[in-house]
Design a protein that fits this description.
By secondary structure, the chain is of the alpha/beta class. It is built from twelve helices and 17 strands. Strand 13 and strand 14 form a beta hairpin. Helix 4 packs across helix 6 and helix 10 packs antiparallel against helix 11. The protein is globular and about 55 Å long.
Length: about 325
């Protein structure tokens, strides 16, 4: 495998010794707020994807080996909804249901395939030696994680009033409207981290941990999939720690962290300390439905790897954020 990777990926020189973990939000790839309105946003999504690809190439050209993670909330919710509507028909009613962990695996393949295919084409056009690898990534969680008793992770589109009344789902209010929610346990261990580390070492651009990874628990000595969606930023922070990454970039819909967001007192933060970030989460300045989980994951990474550059930025600004010209840096 190593010889094959060296052949297709080219030799990795000393300049490419640094590792960057680049996390893409699932909403950046499929906006759940548009699904409710039936808005065809293909052009806008293509623009976002183009910025994501440019970020990855920019990081490679700056001398980083790149590991890409991504969310899947809108996509996995759509697949769940499609299956549930299909099984409502008489001829499909007896068909066994697909587990949520399997749908997470499916979205890892679907999203990873799409981004990797586009990136491979861009790399070839640029004459870059790297090639991509998409890894179905399993993540162990605790069977007794309290998140299983309090579903809070939004998946799928914003729901209409009719759907809220009709569907027998766990539904919660979010900043963009009511959405279905599922359990989101904390990641304990990335079972495929050794494979990821090997591929990164051989110069591949690795796509892994899609949707936060496929959640599994240990039951009577066996690994078993469990219905949940792990927070992808928490996974990314754990991955950055296990890889001893030099940079963790959380790519999201806004250009930087804001206080008093959406008000006349709104203020842009170019940097924030771990202590202030935790205080903001505790006070509700950075709520659990938006920036809270991202900041919490960023603090976790920074506390575990103090010399890691931990940044929040929008797609297209990765290199500018590393240079201190955009985004928010955690200090």
């Amino acid at each position: 495998m190593m010889n094959m990777l060296m052949a297709i990926g080219g030799e990795v020189g000393p300049a490419a010794s640094r590792i960057a973990v680049y996390a893409i939000g699932g909403n950046a790839l499929s906006d759940p707020s548009r699904a409710k309105m039936g808005d065809d946003s293909n052009q806008e999504q293509a623009l976002v994807l183009g910025k994501v690809l440019s970020d990855i190439v920019d990081l490679l050209e700056a001398g980083y080996r790149v590991v890409v993670t991504h969310g899947n909330g809108p996509q996995v919710g759509d697949l769940l909804m499609l299956e549930e509507r299909a099984t409502a028909s008489e001829d499909m009613a007896q068909r066994p249901r697909t587990g949520l962990d399997s749908w997470v695996a499916a979205t890892q393949g679907i999203i990873g395939h799409e981004i990797a295919l586009n990136l491979d084409s861009m790399l070839q056009r640029r004459g870059r030696p790297e090639r991509t690898a998409v890894i179905l990534t399993r993540v162990e969680v605790a069977a007794d994680d309290p998140a299983f008793d309090l579903p809070a992770k939004p998946v799928g589109p914003v729901l209409s009033d009719e759907a809220v009344k009709k569907e027998e789902w766990d539904i919660a209010a979010t900043v963009i409207g009511p959405r279905r929610v599922v359990a989101s346990p904390l990641p304990k261990m990335i079972l495929d981290s050794a494979v990821i580390h090997t591929l990164v070492g051989q110069g591949a651009v690795v796509f892994c941990g899609g949707g936060g990874g496929i959640p599994v628990i240990r039951l009577d000595g066996q690994l078993v999939g469990i219905p949940a969606v792990i927070d992808k930023d928490r996974f990314s922070a754990l991955l950055a720690t296990e890889l001893s990454a030099d940079a963790l970039l959380i790519s999201t819909a806004i250009d930087s962290l804001k206080t008093a967001f959406g008000t006349s007192s709104e203020k842009t933060l170019t940097e924030i300390s771990c202590a202030d970030a935790l205080d903001g989460i505790e006070s509700g300045e950075f709520p659990s439905g938006s920036m809270g989980p991202k900041l919490s994951a960023m603090v976790m990474a920074k506390q575990n790897i103090t010399d890691c550059e931990v940044l929040l930025c929008q797609p297209g600004d990765a290199l500018k954020a590393l240079r201190g010209k955009s985004g928010t840096r955690l200090v």
